[in-house]
Structure formats: C-alpha cells, structure tokens
Design brief:
Number of strands: 11
Helix content: 25-40%
Distance between the termini: 73 Å
Order of helices and strands: EEHEHEEEEHEHEEEHHHH
Largest sheet: 4 strands, mixed
Strand order of the largest sheet: 8-9-11-10
Radius of gyration: 23 Å
Structural class: alpha+beta
Strand content: 15-25%
C-alpha cells in the first residue's frame, strides 16, 4: 500500500492514496466535473484510478466521461433525485485539460447576442480538438472540429460577435440587431468602435462591411 506522511498540527499522520483521494473528493463541488489528472499528484496513476473506481462503485462519484468524474448533487425540489454534471460543463473541462480551444458555434453565438430569435435545436461547440459528443442523461452536446479561422478571438467578446456574423446574412440583419449585440457584449461606444473596425477588416465578413460601417458611424455621432 502506498502511504503518504502528512503533517497535521505537529503530528505525523500516515495516509494511503485511497484516503488522500477520498479526502480531496469531499472538497470537490457537487455537480461540477473534474478530471482525473487533478489527482495524479497524490500517488501513482494506477493507485489513483483504483481509488476513484472504488468511490464510483460506492456511488460517491459518477464517471461522466472518460477520465472525468463528478459528485452527485441532489435537486432542490426533488432531494431524492441526484444530478451529476451538465454536459456543457464536461465539454468545457475536457477542452481545458486537453488544451483545445472551445467556443459556442456561430448560430448559438448569434442567438445569445440577440442577432436571431430562434434558439439552435442542438447544443453545438466548435473546437480545435477532435469532434466528439458528450451525453449525460438527456443532455447532448456536440463538439465539432473546425478551422482556426472560425476560432479567432476565442476568449474575447469580439469572437462571439464574429462567429455570430459568420453564420447570418447581412442582408437580413438589421442595424438595430447589431446594436443589440453590442449591448449584450456590454461594450460602450469607445470599446465597440475598435471591435467594429477589426471586424470590417476580416475577409470572411466582407458582406458585413457596409452595415458595420453604419453602426460605427452611429456610435460616433
């Protein structure tokens, strides 16, 4: 058995890898997915895997994807029913662990910014990593590999705006909707103008140049 020596208030305490894993699991937020890699500092890969497997068999943990777990969380209105984690959260953790870019697809970005009123039928993300699906209960998130071009400005407000415009028609999108999107991004006029200027220079948004210019002029007036 692998034992670790822990100093607790001046007393030496011997803890096995299983005990260390269990103690850390108890500190994990219920309903939030976490990767097994977070535990490899506690012991060998094999011993950590065995410890998490035992906790899963006991119902303390639920395996929500390959190499990812979550503590079940009781629903407020139905304490007897427990949820594990949101499929979207699992996708986000997966991308972070692997070092992949992950962004809501263009139609989702457009909907969130008010550029269109109809919500996408499926939850889809674009990624620099491989395509795959995350399914938890009746939740399904599709992750689709796409080009670096569509992933520009992945973690910036301009990126969401850019991806929304990529999937819509300039001809059928009003100036007011573009201004709504700027508002939802919480950009003031001085912040929005450089964003509009950058977007006008993107070859993929050539059809939007006139309308972006109109919005820019209105913000300047």
């Amino acid at each position: 058995m692998n034992l670790h020596i822990i100093n607790l208030s001046g007393f030496m305490c011997f803890m096995s890898v299983a005990e260390l894993v269990s103690a850390r699991v108890q500190r994990m937020q219920k309903g939030s997915p976490f990767p097994i890699e977070n535990f490899y500092s506690l012991g060998s890969v094999t011993s950590v895997q065995k410890a998490l497997s035992r906790l899963t068999q006991k119902g303390i943990l639920v395996r929500v994807a390959k190499g990812m777990y979550a503590r079940p969380k009781p629903l407020k209105n139905l304490p007897s029913v427990k949820m594990t984690a949101k499929a979207e959260d699992v996708a986000v953790v997966w991308a972070k662990v692997k070092g992949y870019k992950l962004v809501p697809q263009g139609l989702e970005a457009a909907y969130r910014l008010g550029l269109q009123t109809q919500a996408p039928v499926k939850t889809v993300y674009w990624t620099s990593g491989p395509s795959r699906e995350f399914k938890i209960g009746n939740q399904l998130v599709m992750v689709i590999h796409t080009s670096d071009t569509k992933l520009r400005w992945a973690s910036q407000p301009i990126g969401a705006f850019y991806r929304g415009l990529l999937t819509l028609s300039a001809e059928h999108t009003s100036i007011e909707k573009l201004k709504t999107a700027i508002g939802r991004l919480e950009l003031n006029a001085s912040q929005a103008i450089p964003v509009l200027q950058k977007l006008k220079l993107v070859p993929q948004l050539r059809q939007w140049q006139n309308k972006l210019q109109q919005v820019q002029q209105e913000l300047l007036s």
